[in-house]
Specification:
376 residues, 2 domains, six-stranded parallel beta sheet
Length: 376
């Protein structure tokens, strides 16, 4: 079988744990990335490069057509029995591959692709038409939550009913914090880290967060761990904010391997999810970090989005703050906290993690695949 994605997957926690679960069940798993730019040279991943033919509508369209043809020529030689598509571009490739070479399709609808921060009216129409065209080819639909499952039931009623594979982390925190994040940042162990980890993308509230970080109280530091399109802009903004604050209040760290993630983020005092309201994909999102922070014993501070609020209030693992999330709002909330209150949140994080087991999701995913192979 093959995982197919347009996105770089090296730090994609959902892909990594799903692929590992299937490998643990004895399945032969390969990964194909439909790359649109420079990529790493991992021997475990096949990269099929999209040509760079400019940013015009015609150039982009021709480049995608060439990419799909390259992908199909590669797939033709592989004899895959299942295509696990991770986005709408890979779904189109998988549908064409199934029509030509056979096999089955598992579509991991891990986002509402018509309602993301990057969705233009034209793109929404294109994706919806693609979903309708591919509907009969899809054998299984996966989503990370009932929110997305219910949404796709309305958007694509001809699809199979979505099956839930949550974003619970596959790894457990095995050891007490060893100070690695503080050492990497040059901070004393007593300094408190407010951590965002993930992609530096638009509509994630990162601009407001960085621009207002000078208002954070003394002893607290905003740390952004990851990479993405806004990296240069955010680092330039951080320099201005740091000068205003007269201290390096905003710091950056490179992303770390998924297997080591909890060992790093457990050094944070609070984990941040500052996503902006607006895209339906944000309203219903239950991202990996929603589970990873609690698994590391780190309470959350998030903006008021429906799915985030539901999880945080259900398990009492943090604080919801009406967006945008700013240094001043965080400071005012921190003034209401003390060690006992935070300790209670930490204990609740541990309770949540004990009930949101990846093992159950891995078993479910393996069962879904076994069912595929049993079907005539």
């Amino acid at each position: 079988m093959a995982f197919i994605s347009e996105q770089c997957l090296g730090f994609n926690g959902r892909y990594l744990k799903c692929a590992d679960a299937l490998q643990q069940a004895g399945m032969d798993v390969e990964t194909v990335v439909l790359a649109k730019g420079p990529t790493d040279k991992s021997s475990a991943i096949t990269h099929i490069q999209r040509p760079n033919w400019g940013q015009t509508k015609i150039g982009t369209s021709l480049a995608y057509r060439a990419l799909k043809n390259r992908a199909l020529n590669f797939i033709k030689r592989q004899n895959y029995d299942v295509y696990h598509a991770m986005d709408y571009v890979s779904l189109e490739v998988a549908a064409q591959a199934k029509a030509r070479f056979g096999g089955k399709i598992v579509f991991d609808a891990c986002e509402i692709f018509t309602e993301t921060a990057f969705s233009t009216p034209e793109l929404k129409v294109y994706i919806q038409k693609l979903f309708d065209k591919c509907a009969q080819a899809i054998d299984v639909v996966l989503t990370p939550s009932t929110y997305l499952g219910d949404t796709y039931a309305k958007l694509c009623p001809q699809w199979p009913k979505a099956q839930i594979i949550s974003n619970a982390p596959a790894h457990k925190l095995e050891h007490a914090y060893d100070g690695r994040m503080h050492r990497a940042l040059g901070l004393e162990a007593s300094e408190k880290i407010l951590l965002y980890h993930g992609a530096f993308s638009v509509r994630r509230g990162l601009r407001d967060l960085v621009d207002s970080a000078h208002a954070l109280p003394s002893g607290y530091w905003l740390v952004l761990m990851g990479y993405g399109a806004l990296e240069i802009e955010l680092k330039a903004a951080a320099q201005r904010v740091n000068r205003r604050a007269n201290r390096q209040v905003v710091r950056f760290l490179d992303p770390v391997p998924n297997a080591e993630l909890l060992d790093w983020i457990c050094g944070a005092h609070y984990g941040l999810i500052p996503y902006e309201d607006g895209p339906l994909n944000h309203t219903y999102c239950t991202p990996n970090k929603l589970y990873e922070y609690p698994a590391a014993g780190v309470p959350l501070i998030t903006t008021r989005l429906l799915a985030l609020e539901d999880v945080i209030n259900t398990y009492e693992i943090g604080q919801i703050i009406a967006g945008p999330l700013t240094g001043k709002k965080i400071r005012l909330w921190l003034q209401t906290m003390n060690d006992d209150k935070r300790c209670k949140l930490v204990n609740n994080c541990k309770k949540m993690t004990s009930t949101t087991s990846w093992t159950k999701n891995a078993d479910r995913l393996q069962g879904i695949y076994e069912g595929l192979f049993l079907k005539a």
